[in-house]
Specification:
With 351 residues, the chain is of the alpha/beta class. It has two domains: 5-260, 3-Layer(aba) Sandwich (Carbamate kinase), CATH 3.40.1160.10; 273-349, Roll (Archaeosine Trna-guanine Transglycosylase, Chain: A, domain 4), CATH 2.30.130.10. The protein has twelve helices and 16 strands. The strands form four sheets. It has a seven-stranded mixed β-sheet with strand order 3-4-2-1-5-8-9, sandwiched between helices. Strands 12-10-13-14-16 form a five-stranded mixed β-sheet. Strands 6-7 form a two-stranded antiparallel ribbon. Helix 3 (51-59) crosses helix 4 and helix 7 (147-157) runs parallel beside helix 8 (211-222).
């Protein structure tokens, strides 16, 4: 099957240097590749990171740790990032359109449809959508945390055929290639083999992702019916190769051939749990096999202090976490009550 729609994600450490300079050579190759595949009829959506790194350099300050300061810096850096990209896209006769998304845009059906309509209209007008998280107003309770997950959810949103995650490494290894000389690149990785690979968070301190977030994104993509390819942003012609054949080296995570609802994926992979519910085996079986809601009668223990509307993990005493859901009750109100605690529409089975 040919690729008609492609989502490309490129991260902070690929687009900026250690000192926060914009990597013009990487951007040039990126834009050239997008231009070439668009000429062959492929629609492209670009997800980018790097606003904070560029903002820090633009303001001439040291990178702070305070969330409010980082958000303000991201507002400055976002302007710089879009200016740099717009200049290079226009050199090839292409226009870009910015979209800043938040997790609620995927969790709320109306917001989801509005976001999809805007993206479809941009693609119809032959504009390249450039997407980033709305860092300037997001907070720790309502943010993606990394653009890999955002890119995977966008691939679901636009019914993409392929998600291309561009990073500093050529793919996924069975050990850390920076420390193990004999680390082996895995060219094809199935979801059920994720525990056999090496994955960790960002080690540069400048990005928020790392290989672990790439695998989390690949999981979302696979459950969205979208193949995921992880490759190096430094590989010459990587975008064209991803569409026409496959860049070498790289790692392919194939889709499961199904398309789960966006809200379920959002609950499962784009929210952070604030507590957990330990349920009995009867409740587990009902949730996994009959699409039932979680009733209070099946809950044995409540961990954490959370309010109604929070995301919680659902687990058994013996088998561990198997689902996530949005609770309808405060933690303190669950014990001794009756009725629905997590409705099936607010439930995502993980395994």
């Amino acid at each position: 099957m040919g690729i008609a729609r492609l989502v490309v994600k490129v991260g902070t450490t690929s687009l900026t240097s250690d000192t926060g300079e914009f990597r013009t050579e990487v951007a040039a190759g990126l834009v050239q590749g997008i231009d070439e595949v668009r000429r062959s009829g492929v629609e492209v959506v670009l997800v980018v990171s790097g606003a904070i790194a560029l903002g820090v350099r633009r303001l001439g300050i040291a990178r702070p740790s305070e969330a409010a300061v980082l958000q303000a810096i991201s507002a400055v850096g976002q302007v710089e990032l879009l200016a740099q990209l717009a200049q290079r896209f226009r050199a090839y006769g292409m226009e870009i359109g910015q979209m800043l998304l938040a997790p609620q845009d995927f969790g709320d059906r109306r917001q989801y449809l509005h976001a999809r309509a805007t993206l479809e209209e941009l693609l119809r007008m032959r504009v390249v959508p450039v997407i980033n998280e709305n860092d300037a107003v997001a907070n720790e309770e309502i943010r993606f945390g990394d653009n890999d997950r955002l890119a995977a959810l966008v691939s679901h949103l636009v019914h993409a055929d392929l998600l291309l995650l561009l990073t500093d490494l050529p793919g996924v290894y069975d050990a850390d290639p920076r420390r193990v000389s004999g680390a082996r690149l895995i060219e094809r990785l199935e979801l059920d083999a994720f525990d056999t690979v090496h994955a960790q968070g960002s080690i540069s301190g400048r990005g928020s992702g790392g290989m672990s977030s790439k695998l989390a994104a690949a999981n979302i993509a696979a459950r969205s019916g979208v193949d995921c390819l992880i490759a190096s942003a430094q590989t010459e012609g990587v975008i064209v190769a991803a569409v026409q054949a496959r860049p070498a080296p790289s790692t392919l995570i194939p889709s499961l051939g199904v398309r789960e609802p966006a809200r379920r994926l959002w609950i499962a992979y784009a929210t952070d749990p604030e507590g957990s519910l330990v349920v009995d085996e009867g409740a587990r079986a009902a949730l996994c096999s009959s699409s039932a809601s979680l009733l209070a009668v099946g809950i044995r223990q409540v961990h954490g202090r959370f309010m109604a509307g929070a995301t919680v993990e659902i687990e058994t005493a013996a088998g561990g976490v198997f689902a996530r859901g949005i609770t309808r009750l405060d933690a303190s109100a669950i014990v001794g009550t009756r009725g629905v605690v997590v409705h099936r529409d607010d439930l995502a089975i993980l395994v």
